[in-house]
Amino acid sequence: MALDDMYKEVILDHYKNPRNKHDLPEAELSCTRNNPLCGDEITVFVHEDGDTIALVAFMGAGCSISQSSASMMTEAVSGKKIDQAKALAAEFRGMMAGEVEPDEDGLGDLVALKGVVKYPIRIKCAVLAWDVLQEALDSAGTASGSAPHSV
Amino acid sequence: MTGHIGGLDVEKIRKDFPILARTVGDRPMIYLDSAATSQKPQQVIDAESDFYAHHNANAHRGLYMLGEEATELFEGARGKLARFFGAPGPETIVFTRGVTESLNLVSQGWGRKFLHEGDEILITEMEHHSNIVPWQMTAAVTGATLRYIPLTDDGQLDLSDLGSLLTERTKILSVTGMSNALGTITPLKQLVESAHAVDAIVSVDAAQLAPHHRIDVQELDVDLLGFSGHKMLGPTASGGLYGKAEVLDAMDPMLGGGEMIHEVFHDHSTFKPIPYKFEGGTMPIAQEVGLGAAVDYLDALGMEAVRAHEEEITRYALDRLIDAGATVFGPKDASIRGGAVSFWYKDVHPHDLATILNEEGVAIRAGHHCAQLVMRRFDTPATARASFYIYNTKEEVDVLVESLAKAEAIFI
Predict the structure, then answer these.
(1) N or C: which end of chain B has fewer CB within 10 A?
(2) Are residues B256 and B343 in the same domain?
(3) Interface predicted TM-score (ipTM)
(4) A134 vs chain B: nearest CA distance in angstroms?
């Protein structure tokens, strides 16, 4: 059934037992964003070691798709070079836009989110954490990450 | 058994709404999002279609047969709306694209003209963003201060401190008649009396109230009241603003342009009398004609029967949802609330719930409902919301409640 494509076991596992979901005091980079559609909010923290993501964590509240995507993302980018993480973000966005056939070697568990493509309004939920990560990484070199937009 | 609910023959009504025959996969579609927009009866679809097929021309312009017919139909709709809302005359009904435009017209046309530093605008924490943001914008321009009536834990207006909020500094009270996020019906009569006692005028957001309740603007003595046609069986982009003639007379237009002017000179222009000075540009003529057919439809049902149906199906839904373990926001007493029921089902996020219910054919809203102050007051990012209108049945409520178990099976 269609719904099972979206709510795969791996997604529910990350939703119920999120990885790396905690504050990260040593983070140099952080960013908070919300999904204006539903009010879900995610903060991503990154602790760099040179050009490598040494530690990554997230906090926030939201639906199973946004939370599991954030959890899987932290596993996928942890220990990666910043350039590699940005490339992975681009690949993930490509998969969610239906433009890129996902590569399981790179994306790992994240491939499970492919089923969300069939529910266009939920794609934003899946991509939220990645947008926040991207902004946190892009803010490197500025004072202390970026502040949320005021609406 | 569908049959009668409140004073309505729902089975008969459903036959007028072609869209209700749709299915989702192999299941009947159950539309529980009428607080976002209502479905349209064939009578309204026909009225709009008939306008385009037989009478289409610009209103108030053409000196020919079609122009006269279009004008007559358009002004006929204005007359119907004036009667529907108990207004003293058609000139007190300004056509707008809906409540958002109506409230922007009030906040700009009245607020920017009459508000100054030291003045206060009083609204409430249960307002839709369209009754908050325009006032923030006007406060920023005029230097007036925006204040809020807080909410009680059961989602009603907390009027215990009204005396210190509504003072001689208050120039306008702008308040919803019924909350789109909590369902709460506000005590308009009492609020109008309190506001008038300090010489403040009252503007009402009737987007949710007008589809379900008889409103008599003269009996309520409100100064301004906006309504959205698309939530009361009418086409999108139909709606309007009722205003007391002296209040509308004093207001500035928001849109300058064609059809709203009397004379144009190099350095200034003079405006037409109300309501035309507010209707710059070509109006959504066919849509307002469709709205005229919508109020004919509601009048034929009788607004007392429409409200009785709402109250009965809301009471049924509240009982069943609470029994099933849902947490309902807003009043639990159907006699003081409308049919927009916000809830959480156990720990299932509203977005997940809406996706799962869709598989069962059930359309509900999930999100903040353009009422983030309400969400913050009740410490939740979002709620699921089921909302009911004249075509909804108790059997549909049953499917909603039974479908919650599917969500539970996946998530809990």
Answers:
(1) N
(2) no
(3) 0.83
(4) 23
